[in-house]
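Molecular record:
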Amino acid sequence: MIWPAHVGGHLGEFHADIAAVLLVSTLAGAALCGLGVVAYRRRRSRSYLLVVVALAALLARPLVALGSTAAMVSAETHHLLEHSLDAVFVVLVLTAVYHARSVERRLDEEER
């Protein structure tokens, strides 16, 4: 028996299940990115800025997928962009953590 790659209804090339997941993912990513901007505005630190940019990369992923489903982005470009955004996200989060820890360590040393 052959199983489809997704479940749910579809009309021609439009797949309602994939569209719903992308919509929820986009809204969640936008909410996270918005919260990150609020946190950055309160703290004004480089680490928070890096987290905001990382969250923007996370938000860009479903947007790339939407572009692919709308035939605005080819499948090859879609995969390249999504994997690139994954790498950007990881590098930015690790850099934010490293920066926060190194600044915290410097502040501790200056207090002594």
About this structure: Helices lie at 16-43, 46-69, 75-111. The first helix runs from residue 16 to 43. The mean pLDDT is 83.
